[in-house]
Amino acid sequence: MSNWIDFSAQEVSVGAESLPLNLTAGTEILLTSVFLSIPDYQTRVNGYATIGWETPLLQNTQHINMIFRIRRGGFTSDHKLICWFVDSITLGHDVPILTIDKTLSLQFTDQPSIENVGTFQQYCLTAELAGAGQATISGPITLIGGTFNL
Q1: Which of 1, 14, 23, 32 allows an S-S link to 129, with CB 3.0 to 4.6 Å?
Q2: pLDDT-derived band of residue 92, with 50, 70 and 90 as boundaries?
Q3: How far is CA 89 from CA 65, 80, 117, in A?
Q4: What separation in angstroms does the CA of 141 have from each of 12, 25, 35, 83, 125?
Q5: Do the strands 3-12 and 136-149 form a parallel or antiparallel pair, or are they unpaired?
Q6: pLDDT tens, 33-57?
């Protein structure tokens, strides 16, 4: 039987502080993070995230790719990549709306290494606009994480 050890959650609501957040192509940015306790080598991490994003239809680019990542220990490429997801939109020509809104939901798991035992580890949710086009993180953004022992 598994025993839950720690739980943390962060939510950034639509219209809160930094939202909406316009993205620059090729730049990975931090959306939010949680800190979780890693008490021993049998600790496992489960997490869940949702990200609301949108793109305007009035642009020359026909295909928009977003890369969402979960990193441990920080939010730059120097930090441990736990997983990544690509979400995309292909734009048509005769669509009578000005923006397309999307929400991506994802789940992740991690087994921290022995050097992480006895520490709190930061799990970061990041976003990157890959290639050309325009995209905005509109929210809401939710990141939930928990640790348990097997």
Answers
A1: 23
A2: low
A3: 7, 28, 40
A4: 5, 20, 16, 17, 9
A5: antiparallel
A6: 999 999 999 999 999 999 999 988 7
Q: Which residue has the tokens 């022995």?
A: 114
Find the range with the poorest average confidence among 17-26, 74-83, 134-143: 17-26
User: Does the pLDDT value for residue 128 go beyond 70?
Assistant: yes
User: What CATH architecture does domain 3-149 belong to?
Assistant: Sandwich (2.60)
Distance CA 33, CA 73 (A): 10
Triad 141, 96, 136: Cα angle to 5°:
25
| Domains in the chain: boundaries | 3-149
Angle at 106 between CA 101 and CA 110, to 5 degrees: 155
